[in-house]
Amino acid sequence: MRPKLGKLAVVIFLTALAALAANFKLYLKDGSYHVVREYTADKERVRFYSVERSEWEEIPLELADLKRTETELKQHQAALQEETKALTAEDEADRRQREELARVPQEPGVYLIGDTLKPIKQAESKAVTNQGRRILKLLAPVPVVTGKVTVELDGERSSNIVTSAEPEFYFRISLPERFAILKLGSKKSSRVVQTWHIAPVTDELLEEDQPVPIFHRELDTNLYRIWPKEPLKPGEYAVVEYTAGQRNIQVWDFAYRPSGKP
Description:
The chain has helices spanning about 5-20, 65-105; strands at about 25, 35-40, 45-50, 55-60, 110, 120, 125-130, 130-135, 145-155, 160, 170, 180-185, 185, 190-200, 205-210, 210, 215-220, 225-230, 235-240, 250-255. The chain is of the alpha+beta class. It folds into two domains: about 5-105, SH3 type barrels; about 110-255, no CATH class. The strands form four sheets. Strands 7, 8, 9, 13, 14 and 15 form a six-stranded antiparallel sheet that branches. A five-stranded antiparallel sheet has the order 6-5-11-18-17, with no helix packed on it. Strand 5 (about 110) and strand 6 (about 120) form a beta hairpin. Helix 1 (about 5-20) runs antiparallel to helix 2. It is rod-shaped. The two termini are about 50 Å apart.
């Protein structure tokens, strides 16, 4: 894998390649060669500028293998053009990525990508047990309980509406944790993000949810661009960040509605 080059480094590298390309081998029929900068040939002699001796020299035409010389020179020039094209494309890709990074706010969160970036407000998720509902906070997870716990969002529908079946998001995560897009379940007056099954004694937690297969591209440390692998079906969804088994899930909810209506 070629290391990334900055703009100045690319210019220097291309300049060096061009300098090397200016010199080539003038082959002789006995298999030897002179490293030359240029040459001319007439019916009797070949005149060339020797790089080694920094002066013009001549040899009889019958000693020179001009066919091999020209073939290798063309191959070398074609390879140089391809390398130049690849480096230019890489530099352009780096420039576009820098511009993309500059778009994303520094604050952790989820941003819907469009003509402008739309921040998605973090939802207030709640852990629901037989004993009641408790707001989930990153630094204050729910107390130890056993049995079944559902992580829910109040309301049957999200106010964050996307009209594309393949929405894309920037996700700047707060910690190096897992992240995903989940399909939300429905419950009377709420949406279910996850169901936790907590074992007695060991306190082992198993998350049950409906993940959406996604693609993701890392743009920077803890910054990703994410999007679904397949078009979404209309419904309720959320981008989530969590640590498996730690009861610290963070949720950014949205709904895909082709009509755009609430």
